C-alpha cells in the first residue's frame, strides 16, 4: 500500500544552525503519527518542508506517492495543513473564512456550501459560523483553523500544535474530531507539547530533538527503550532500615532507598509481578501498609532520550 | 487558477473598500490636494513668454514673410520674441542653454524648391522646458507646411496642364493658391498654457499612485503575519496566485485614483491634459512603474509596518525629485537631471508635453518606454526578492 505521506533524508540548515537533519518517516492511511519534541527541536521546520512552504536542502517528500518537489500542486491537493498559529481573517466570519479557502483550493461552486456545512458540523461550530472570527474564543478559532484544512478532503492532515491555548472543552472536541477522521481513514501527522494528547491520538510516535529523530515506534516500543525498570513505592510499619536491606537482596531489585520515616523507593524490573516477593522479604521486620508501582511512560522516555521535559 | 486569483482579488478589493482609508487615499486626498493646489497656484500663472530662435539659411521671400507675420500677429504681441541666429548649431546651443525656448530653421534654397513645386522641410527644435515656445513654433510650422503643400500641389497641377515653367509661379499666385504670405489662424497659444492646475493635478496623481498600488503589496506582508499567506502557499495553487490577485486590485485602484484626479482636474479647471489616449497611456505606464517599485519594497522589508514607512518615504522623495510637488522647471538644473531617475520625472515630462502641445501618443513614446523599463527592472528584482522572502 502506498504511504499517505512519506519523507526521507530531510535536511535544512539556517547558516550554521542545523534545524533539521536526516528526518524520515512514513504514515499509512488511517494512521496517526505523532512528532514530539522540545521547543526549537525542528518540528515546525519539518512540517514546513512537508507542506511545501520551505524548500528542503536535502531529502524528498512523497504525498500518496506523488513527489512534492516535482508535482507540487498535485501533492498539495492531498494535504491539509493546520498552521501552528491561527491563520484566518479576523474581520470575516467563520463561514466566510471557510468559503474563501474553499474557493481558493478549487472546490466547485455548487459543492462548496454543502462541504462548508459538513466541516462546520464536524468541528461543532455550525451555530456560530456567521459571527466574525475576531469575536471567537481561542478554542473556536482553533477549530476553524482546523476546518479550513479539511475543506478539500485531504488524504493527510498535518497539524502543528493544534491545541495550544485551547480550553478543555474545545480540546476535547478537537481530539474527538481528529479521532473520527482517523477512523474514517485519514492519515494524521500531529505535533504537540501535550504528551497525553499524543499518547491518546497517535499510534506511532517519533521523538525529535536538535533536528534529529532520536527514537521512533509505537508507544510500547518507545517505553521499552528506557528498559523495563519500574519504580515501586512502599510504605512500611516496623524496622524500616532492616526491611530496606532485605528488599535490596530481592532478585530483580536494582536499588532501594529510604525516602522518609516509613517509606522506601525501589527500582525494579517487572515491579508489579515482584510485589509478592517484596512483601515476603520484609516479613519479620516490618509490614507493608501501602504500595504503588509506577511504570515508565512516554514522558519518562522523552526525559531519558532528550534530557528535557516536554513543556516550557 | 484564474478562479483562485479572482478569489484573492475579490477579498483584497472587499478589504480595501471596507477600510475607509483606502477610498480616502485613492480618491479624496489626491483630488482635494490637486484642486487646492490648482486654485491656489494655477491659472494663467506660468510666464507666457517665449523666445523663438529664427535661423534663415534661405534668405528668400518665404522666411521673410513668416517673420513679418509672426511680428505682426496680435495674439503673439508681448509674449513671443523672435531672435535671429546664424546657424542650426547655434540654435541648438542656445536652446540647450535655455536662451531660447524653440527654434525654426529654414534650409538654404527653401523658397526656390517650394516655388518649383518640390516642397521643402522646415526644421523645428523644441525643449520640454519651454512648452509654450514649442507650441508657437509648432503652430507656425503647421501653417508653413499647409501653405507649402497647397503651393506644391498647385505648381504640379499647372505643370501637368502644360503651363510653361516660367509662367507657373505667376499663374499659381494669381489664382489664389496663397503666396508666401502666411496667416496665423486662431490663437496659437491656446494649447500652450500648461496651466499649473494641470501640473499639480498630474503631480498628485503620480504621487498617490504609489500609495494606492503599494497598499496591495503591503497587504501581502500583513497576510504573511496573519499566516494566511502560508496557508495559501501550502494549498494546491500556483505560487503567483496571491501576489497576482493582489497586484491586479492595486493596479486597478491606482488607475481609478489617477483617472479621478485627471477627470476632476479637467472638469474643475477646464484645462485639458492633452490627448486622452496619450494621457491614459502615460498614466498606465506610471502606475505600472509605481507597482513594480512598491512590490520591490514589499520584497525587501520584513513587516507591513516597515513597508508603510519605506513606501511613504520613497513616494515622497520620488515625488519631490520627479517634479510631482514642485514643477520641474522651477527646480535647479542638477535636480532636473536627477528627476529623470524617477518615474515621476518621466511622467511629469510626458504629461507637460501632452498638455502643452496637444501632441499624440507618438510624442511621448520615449518617456513611456522608460517608465515600462523601470517597471520591468524593478518588477524583476521584486519577483526575485519575493521568492527569497517566501512570499511567492
Ligand atoms: N527562518 C529561520 N531562520 C533561522 N533559524 C530558524 C528559522 N526558522 C527556525 N529556525 C531555527 O530552527 C530551529 C527549529 O525551529 P522550529 O521552529 O522548527 O522548532 P519547533 O520544534 O517547531 O519549536 P516550537 O516547539 O517552539 O514550535 C530553531 O533553533 C529555530 O531557532
Ligand atoms: Mg513549532
TrEMBL record, chain A:
Keyword Phosphoprotein attached: no
PROSITE patterns: ABC_TRANSPORTER_1, ABC_TRANSPORTER_2
Matching SUPFAM superfamilies: P-loop containing nucleoside triphosphate hydrolases (SSF52540)
Pfam family for this entry, one: ABC_tran
Gene Ontology terms for molecular function: ATP binding; ATP hydrolysis activity
Domain ABC transporter intervals: 5-235
Keyword Nucleotide-binding in annotation: yes
Top-level taxon of origin: Bacteria
PANTHER family linked: LINEARMYCIN RESISTANCE ATP-BINDING PROTEIN LNRL
Record's protein name: ABC-2 type transport system ATP-binding protein
Organism: Nonomuraea dietziae
Taxonomic classification: Bacteria, Bacillati, Actinomycetota, Actinomycetes, Streptosporangiales
